[in-house]
Amino acid sequence: MTELMGYQAREDWMGREVLTLADVWPDEPRAMIVGLNPAPSSVDAGHYYQGQVGQGQLRKLAAAGLFQAPSGRYFEGAALAAGVGFTDIVKRPSRGEGDVGADEIRFGSGQLADNLQSRGVQLIVCVFRHPVKVLLGTEGVPGMQAKRTSWGARVFRMPGPFDKRENVERVMSELSAHLDSGE
Question: Residues in domain Uracil-DNA glycosylase-like (predicted)?
Answer without folding.
Answer: 26-140
